[in-house]
Design goal:
The protein is of the alpha/beta class. The protein is about 40% helix and about 15% strand. A five-stranded mixed β-sheet has the order 3-2-1-4-9, with helices on both faces. Helix 7 runs parallel beside helix 8. The longest helix has 20 residues.
């Protein structure tokens, strides 16, 4: 049915274990591949019949390269669809239900969605049959739905996302580029935010990398932006072509998405650059004026 892959970069802590176990809970039809050489990862995966690939190519900073493990995962996957998920993301059965609904409508697609930030400061007891219900309630009551750029899972047909620049993983921009790339090769992109809760377990960022600002604005983040081709190729959930709600799949037709479509029109049709840029400037001026009132 589906192969989930991820990379455990820094350490194998309770957050990563929570995430991996939640994926295992999706069912026997879900294959899992974990990359990385974090301490204890090999033993953890072996005990749970998770495929573990230790070796991953790295850049000059020692950071694993996205293109390397993305290509390896697509080669190794036994299923026709693969899903990259960040290693701190907890998924529920609604994720798999969304995948099945989209699969029934489209032969090929990319499925994405925004994450919900939540403090999870303990190992989850997966033996408790109500763990999912309890955590979902907490997410709805206490969680913080991240803005449109906060996308932490990407489902797509294997061997379609292959021309990937050597992005540094975990350093921003590469994930947003994935949405642009899917659009550029004609894949329908479906935003499942209204129907899928994906919990991002809040955590601190390594001080050796300059904390959050170092991750988002450091040399590797800047390099990722350059490799992506600049801001024109940094897409988010507003650039999805379809949306999955509890009512079903529909084309994005609201004002926000139509507006974004005009602003990015020149990315795929260069002759519309003047129209896109002019519209974007006018829209920003109107927003500034409205904010002053």
């Amino acid at each position: 049915m589906l192969t989930i892959f991820s990379i455990c970069r820094e350490s194998l802590g309770y957050r990563e274990k929570n995430a991996f176990e939640s994926w295992r809970n999706l069912g026997e039809d879900v294959e899992i591949i974990i990359f990385g050489d974090a301490k204890g990862l090999s033993e953890f995966c072996k005990a749970r019949r998770i495929i573990h690939i230790k070796e991953v190519k790295r850049n000059e900073f020692g950071t694993p390269l996205v293109n390397d493990f993305f290509l390896k995962a697509q080669e190794l996957a036994k299923n026709n669809f693969v899903c990259f998920v960040n290693a701190d993301i907890i998924l529920f059965k609604d994720f798999l239900e969304a995948f099945k609904k989209i699969s029934s409508k489209f032969e090929k697609f990319m499925m994405i969605g925004r994450r919900t930030n939540l403090d999870v400061k303990y190992p989850i007891n997966f033996g408790d049959l109500s763990w999912e219900k309890k955590l979902k309630i907490r997410a709805l009551q206490e969680g913080d739905l991240y803005p449109p750029a906060g996308v932490d899972y990407f489902v797509f047909p294997k061997k379609t996302i292959i021309k990937i620049p050597p992005f540094a993983v975990g350093r921003t921009k590469y994930d947003n580029w994935l949405i642009f790339y899917a659009r550029s090769i004609g894949l329908p992109v479906v935003d499942t935010t209204p129907s899928v809760i994906a919990i991002h377990q809040n955590h601190e960022y390594p001080t050796r990398l300059g904390g959050q600002s170092g991750i988002w604005e450091g040399p590797e983040a800047k390099q990722n932006l350059s490799l992506a081709g600049g801001w024109d190729h940094i897409f988010d959930t507003r650039d999805a072509t379809y949306i999955l709600t509890l009512k079903g799949i529909s084309f994005h037709m609201d004002l926000e998405h139509l507006s974004r479509r005009i602003e990015t029109l020149h990315v795929f049709y260069p002759s519309f650059k003047v129209i896109s840029k002019t519209y974007s400037k006018i829209r920003k001026k109107i927003i500034r004026l409205l904010n002053k009132e």
